Amino acid sequence: MNHTFHARLGAVLSTGGCGLLCLIIAFGNTTDYGTNFEFVKHVLSMDTIFPNSAVTYRALTQPAIHHIAYIIIILLEASMAFFLLKGTFDILKAIHAESIPFQASKKNAYIGICLGIILWFIGFIVVGGEWFSMWQSQTWNGLGSADRIITFFMLTYAVLLLTK
């Protein structure tokens, strides 16, 4: 086996791992809706940030908005799972192909990775962490999880880009 095959196998494994992670997260958020809904509700309501914070005017306290936001999160997670797992299958099918067809096989994986960047970097870290000041909450702070997940996604993105 050569270096190219091993690198391509790494792309399959990392993409598949991200896809499986998204599938499990979407499944958990769907089957345990209420528990994880509380997280979204508290982050958007900003009810557990520093008591004297001057940014609480940004809070969204309407339950309908909480549910809409949570459903969008679940749909993004499920979409990521679909694109990443489809991308894994496509890459695996092309693992022995020439460079151009192999590069084309990564399309769905790239879409899944981009959705992950939208959700976990822009959604959780930028919007949740900074706009809704999630970093101030001792109880409802998902920045550690978002950091971990976006790290996996960015490493997988790099693997995809570097795999010939």
Topology:
Blueprint: H1 3-31, H2 33-45, H3 63-93, H4 99-104, H5 107-131, H6 143-162
Helix pairs in contact: 1-2, 1-3, 1-6, 2-3, 3-5, 5-6
Q: Could you give the count of β-strands?
A: 0
Structural class: mainly alpha
State the low-pLDDT regions, or none.
Answer: none
* Multimeric state: single chain
Q: Tell me about the biggest sheet? A: none
What amount of the residues lies in strands?
under 5%
Rough outline:
elongated
Order of helices and strands: HHHHHH
- Fraction of helical residues: over 70%
- Using only CA atoms, what is the Rg? 18 Å
The number of distinct helices, counting runs of at least 4 residues, comes to 6
Summarize the structure.
With 164 residues, this protein is an all-alpha fold. It is built from six helices and no strands. Helix 5 (107-131) packs antiparallel against helix 6 (143-162).
In words, what does this structure look like?
It is built from 6 helices and no strands. It has 164 residues and is mostly helical. Helix 1 packs antiparallel against helix 3 (63-93), helix 1 (3-31) packs antiparallel against helix 6 and helix 3 (63-93) runs antiparallel to helix 5 (107-131). The model has no long low-confidence stretch (mean pLDDT 96).
